Amino acid sequence: MILPIVAYGDPVLKKKAKEIDKDYPKLTELIENMYETMYGAYGVGLAAPQVGLPIRLFLVDTEPFSEDEDLTDEERAQMKDFKKTFINAQIIEEEGDEWAFNEGCLSIPDVREDVFRQPKIKIQYQDENFETHVEEYDGLIARVIQHEYDHIEGVLFTDKLSSFKKRLIKGKLTNISKGKIKIDYKMRFPAMSRKR
Ligand SMILES: [Zn+2]
Known about the structure:
Structural class: alpha+beta
Distance between the termini: 23 Å
Bound molecules: zinc ion
CATH superfamily: Peptide deformylase
Strand order of the largest sheet: 2-3-4-7-8
């Protein structure tokens, strides 16, 4: 089932999300629905707060990047096979010199900006079976994980922009929160839900 994606301005996107355990109700179904929602919107990642749930769960599937002509063959091959569910994730380490990448977000349609992040991460998380893993990632995969991880920490990529850039996109962000935007996937807008 495709879930509506919460738009910029909803307070759930600013909350630090809570850990869950295996008794979380209908978790398997939720994960399935989140994948369906992400694929339906052509995203490479989706975090639970984006479907209105302040819990530490996000998914990543970088397959769409496997057709990106700016990447090397090796990178593209890597992107093709990276699909993973992260539960109760904690980034333990981030290192290296920050690099810029043009990011977007399903909760903030039509806004893309360069965001600076460190290239290497070490992350601890649980998989769908609640087995714990500690893994290291770099490059574009690390980038997507960092973006999704920020969501469960209540941080959006727009929070990381300079105050100048923030001022430039302010009007656009206000329009998104009011639902004044054309999108081809299902969304839930904060200004509209308040009226109900
Ligand atoms: Zn996002």
